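S1.2 Input.
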Amino acid sequence: MFNVLLVDDEPRALEGLQLLIGWETLGFQICGLCRSGAEALEKLDETPVDLVVTDIRMPEMDGLGLIAEAKTRRGIRCQIRHCERLR
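S1.3 Output.
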């Protein structure tokens, strides 16, 4: 199983990501839910993660800041994808 970390500042979006995607049938287990980029970085320091699904627009640290910090400054090796909410 691969570990997936879900990151979004809106609780309903996090809930939707959990429920609408059959993570286990795709070979993933959800290892964490984070409501900000900063919280996600803490989780990445603690837990091996294979995939991060993140929102781009978040307060404090947005998804692009999370990607830059995780990959460039911290050298974390994982796949990072972003999801933008439909408006």
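S1.4 Remarks. The chain has a mean pLDDT of 87.
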